[in-house]
Design goal:
This protein is α/β, with parallel strands linked by helices. It has 9 helices and 16 strands. The strands form 2 sheets. Strands 1, 2, 6, 7, 8, 9, 15 and 16 form an 8-stranded mixed β-sheet that branches. Strands 4-5-3-11-12-13-10-14 form an 8-stranded mixed β-sheet. The structure holds flavin-adenine dinucleotide (FAD).
Length: 364
């Protein structure tokens, strides 16, 4: 197959997490042919390990460029999940039950932030909160964000992988670690000793993006930030996302509960550990005491693509080298807007939002 169309394309996308796969689909829909690489299986890193809340945590704490991406994405999520379900047969289980958040000390800030925005932030009485979530012990009166949804991100990854595999203009190559060399004006891509040709390269390699940039001597601030999660068995104890004291419970359609998460700056190490287990388990029981009776089914860890202030890089480092990475704790929710914005810039379309805040600032 050497020399066939499989080894050249208009664009090479490095990394098939949610960001790489969404980028590939956007570019392919715009008429470009795409080679999409992953060093392992598509959608099995952070995009699998995450929680799937379709909102930044405590959204009022984030800079306006994060809100701009999140707001655009939140509007398209229902259609995205429905059309993936229709085209692939894989349902990513969008739940639209909203989110309860305790944030007493920033109540005014949160309410002011939510004015005129969707999803809104509104007040709710203790009694109403209790009737929404009778099994949850809330030490403070929460805020209510009725428009927040969640997805089962592992399924979203599977649906995206199938959509990419089925797309006539995308060639997905798994278990192929990419090495980047050359320079910014003529980046070269190789994997397993094979060179691949394309007009442009997009780095969407999550926590590993900085390592790949090193191949062209670019210093990039994206670095791994470990997060650990617990999975409780089927119990149907919560109905919607609940966020309290920095920890959250996310119900799945099958009655399980994902509980997270830790935030650890420990490099590329991602083995689940006892300390995290104890801390998460204590938080889970404090929030939902009756969880004590529910079997714990799993603990796992993933590496978020950490970036300063959580602000992603979406744009060109040079005419040939592009990036869509560094979405930190919000990569699932930000993926539709980020990928559309990347594609808009690459095909010279009017961008959905001002791309300036996300331009890579490179240090050679
Ligand atoms: C515990 C936890 C909870 C989270 N909860 C949420 C949440 O509720 N909501 C939300 O929006 N976000 C959440 N996130 C964040 C979100 O999961 C990430 O921001 C998002 O998945 C990043 O997507 P990505 O495609 O950039 O990275 P990844 O999914 O990590 O994908 C990067 C891919 O690049 C590949 N790759 C790396 N190097 C190479 C190479 N040299 N060659 C080829 N391929 C390569 C990897 O194998 C990987 O598949 C959470 C993350 C964690 C860990």
């Amino acid at each position: 197959m050497v020399g066939s169309q499989f080894y050249s394309a208009d664009v090479t996308v490095v990394g098939a997490g949610v960001m790489g796969m969404m980028s590939a689909l956007e570019l392919a829909e715009a008429g470009l042919s795409v080679l999409l690489f992953d060093k392992g299986q598509a959608g099995q890193e952070a995009s699998w390990a995450g929680g799937g809340i379709i909102s930044p945590l405590y959204p009022w704490r984030h800079a306006p460029p994060i809100t701009a991406l999140a707001t655009w994405s939140q509007q398209v999520f229902p259609d995205l999940i429905a059309s993936l379900n229709e085209s692939t047969g894989i349902d990513a289980e969008l739940s639209t039950e909203g989110m309860l958040v305790t944030a007493t000390h920033e109540r005014e800030k949160a309410l002011a932030w939510g004015v005129g925005l969707s999803p809104r932030v509104v007040e709710i009485s203790d009694e109403d909160a209790r009737s929404l979530e009778p099994n949850v012990r809330l030490d403070e009166t929460p805020l209510w964000m009725p428009g927040v949804s969640s997805v089962r991100n592992s399924r979203m990854g599977r649906a995206l992988k199938r959509a990419c595999s089925n797309h006539p203009r995308i060639r997905l190559l798994e278990n192929r670690e990419v090495i980047l060399s050359g320079d910014l004006d003529s980046p070269k891509i190789s994997s397993q000793g094979q060179c691949y040709a394309s007009d442009r390269v997009v780095l969407a390699a999550g926590a590993w993006t900085g390592n790949i940039f090193a191949g062209v001597k670019v210093s990039c601030p994206i670095k791994p930030m470990k997060g650990q999660m617990l999975l409780f068995g089927q119990c149907y104890l919560v109905n919607r996302v609940v966020l309290a004291k920095g920890r959250y419970a996310i119900p799945r359609a099958d009655g399980r509960i994902v509980f997270g998460s830790t935030l650890e700056d420990v490099g590329f190490e991602r083995i689940p550990d006892r300390n995290a287990f104890e801390s998460l388990y204590a938080s889970a029981l404090s929030m939902i005491p009756v969880l004590e009776e529910i079997p714990l089914e799993a603990q796992w860890a993933g590496l978020r693509p950490g970036s300063p202030e959580g602000l992603p890089w979406i744009g060109a480092v040079s005419d040939k080298l592009w990036v869509n990475s560094g979405h930190f704790r919000n990569g699932v929710v930000l993926s539709p807007a980020s990928s559309r914005l990347l594609c808009d810039q690459m095909v010279d379309r009017t961008p959905i939002i001002d791309p300036t805040p996300y331009q890579p600032w490179i240090a050679l």
